[in-house]
Amino acid sequence: MLLGLAIGIFMAVGLVYGNRFIKYLLTAYVWIFRGVPVVVLLFLFYYGLFNYLGWNFSAFTAVTIVLGMTTGAYQANIFKGAILSLPRGQFKAAIGLGMSELQAIKSIILPQILRMSIPAWSNEYSIILKDSALAFVIGAPEIMARTQFVASRTYQHLSLYITAGIIYFLLTWAGVIALRKLEKYLRIPGYSHHGNQ
Amino acid sequence: MTENIPILRVNNISKSFGSNTILDSVSVALAKGEIKVLIGPSGGGKSTLLQCINCLVVPDSGEIELENEHIHFSRKQDLYRLRQQVGMIFQDFNLFDHLTALDNITIALRKVKRMNKKEAMQRARLELEQVGLGDKETLYPAQLSGGQKQRLAIARALAMDPKILLLDEPTSALDPTLIGEVIAVIKGLAVKGMTMIMATHQISLIYNLADEILFMENGRIVEQGPPAALLSAGNKSKSQGFCDRLNELSEVEG
């Protein structure tokens, strides 16, 4: 998720402010990672690409990379939307004060879009957390793989999968609650769309 | 009005977007302490001219000289330096929404002028006092009225010690009851000898402050001269006609 965040931010900045070549490249990236199912990507990277390149990643690392790159593509779009929804004038004003483009993006644009992106980001968090269940197809030792392993030994399928479900639910719930707290904490006074101020 | 050598020289700048020519070889020169006012119909290029002067919009051709230093449009460092020395006030304020009034001012002082936090805060407080917002430093832009926002934007620009201030219809987005406080601040600047170019439809600013009026239409300056000459009774100038209409409008509103 954090890898995805890093990828997403850089890509979004590239998508909005980059030159034409960078935009084409990043757009292609987003299309590929959004268009191909995560399972396919996992097989493709783990058995295909990494093998071909002779990189000997553990299943866990491979999953982290693939999920990170996938969510990066989605997050890039979240952030791109947020950047475009900011009034353009603020960027102009920052530049007009003598800031460089990079300074303006870092100190004016990013702090605002990260705040605005939290709701969409919490959505993406819950999706990617659950997508991580797919990692068991390449044998990464995550919750789903462990559950299946135990279930096949003990034949307690129902109770074990319910437990797995509850664990995913709790992880998602905790993350989403934390993000909501963060959103409240970071809210800019007087700048809200909740209509009660 | 001082008649020494101009601190800003803009020579024959042009700007097109696609096949649309917005500025057609416009030249302006500005002496220290001089105030020029741009008037004319919307879409005449006033806003683009102002944005070209500090290269927020980089001109397609032409030359800009600040204190006899030629600005190379392709050199980033030249552009940064130019923009630091030429302040810009926008019609819709463009404050940084995520920062307090104080931090709206300190951020550029710290990032661009590399001041430390304490110096920047001292300077910012001074500027807030000057525009009458001394007690508002912890408020965010969304908590300020339109007039207060524009005064904050002016304070933010002044903190950078600009040699020239560009004002792009500074009162046009304001409620009529709030225009007065912003006009007072701008007049205060004029008294202190700030060099300014201002696009405005505010009659009192045009009559009282302008050393020279530039009437822009279709990307060109079609008339220019001191208000006394252009706006004298019975003059058939475009500027005169335009101001008459503005007057009629403000009488209707009043």
Task: Give the SSE layout.
The complex is a heterodimer of chains A (197) and B (254).
Chain A lengths: L1 H16 L2 H16 L2 H16 L5 H27 L3 H8 L4 H31 L11 H12 L2 H30 L11
Helix pairs in contact in A: 1-2, 1-4, 2-4, 3-4, 4-6, 5-6, 6-8, 7-8
Chain B lengths: L5 E12 L2 E12 L3 E5 L6 H8 L7 E6 L2 E2 L5 H10 E4 L11 H11 L5 H14 L15 H13 L5 E5 L7 H16 L3 E5 L3 H7 L2 E6 L2 E6 L1 H4 L7 H16 L1
Description:
The complex is a heterodimer of chains A (197) and B (254). Chain A is an all-alpha fold. Chain A has a single domain (2-186), classed as MetI-like fold (Orthogonal Bundle), CATH 1.10.3720.10. In chain A, 79% of the residues lie in helices and 0% in strands. Chain A has eight helices and no strands. In chain B, 39% of the residues lie in helices and 25% in strands. Chain B has a six-stranded mixed beta sheet, with helices on both faces. In chain B, strands 2-1-4-5 form a four-stranded antiparallel beta sheet, covered by helices on one side. Chain B has 254 residues and is an alpha/beta fold. In chain B, α4 (117-130) crosses α5 (146-158) and α5 packs parallel to α6. The A-B interface holds A 87, 89-90, 92-100, 103, 107-108, 111-112, 115, 188-191 and B 51, 54, 56, 76, 80-81, 83-85, 87-88, 90, 92-98, 107-108, 111-112, 139-143, 153, 156-157, 160.
